[in-house]
Amino acid sequence: MRISDWVIYLSNESRPKELMIEISTHCNYACIHCFRYGARDFKQCFMSKDLFMRVINEAKKVGVRRIIFSGWGEPTTHPNFIEFYRETKSRGFEVVLNTNGYMLAEYSEELVKTELDELYVSIDAIDIELYSKIRRLGDLTIVSRGLLAVKEAKRKLGFMKPVVKAI
After folding, report:
1. Burial bucket for residue 5 (CB in 10 Å: 0-12, 13-18, 19+)
2. Selected residue with higher pLDDT from 13 and 90
3. Is residue 19 within 8 Å of 64, Cβ to Cβ?
4. Partners of 39 in beta bridges
5. Between β-strands 163-166 and 66-69, what pairing exists: parallel, antiparallel or unpaired?
6. What gap in Å lies between CA 127 and CA 137, rounded to an integer?
7. Are 67 and 95 contacting, i.e. CB atoms less than 8 angstroms apart?
8. What is the pLDDT confidence band of residue 82, given thresholds at 50, 70 and 90?
């Protein structure tokens, strides 16, 4: 393939190994640094079940091994988040969730029981007042309870996953 002065050669075995899927552009927070507020004509929406199924079917076909739920919105706000997550795990994908953590307490046992591989929680500050200024509409106490619920579910079920990282 030729692009301007560049010549790009791809091996026939070249395939994406991971795929980030944005199932929701909705968010339950209004963070001061969110780039959504700078986007012209930005519309909040949820990915349809049909589109989601097409995406993961194609991902499986081309050899993607790792699916990352992330994006401009909060994945856990999607009404079918758990259904989409379970479908992805059932197909043998390694699954990563990037979240603001607000819904962790509700989903903790399911995520641990089905062996979510990695959990990234965006925190930005450990001081409650500063956190609430950065992550407007967020509540660090609720996020902390969610993280504790994940830890307790791992202990109770005897699982090592998910690997949890605060970012």
Report:
1. exposed
2. 90
3. yes
4. none
5. unpaired
6. 15
7. yes
8. very high
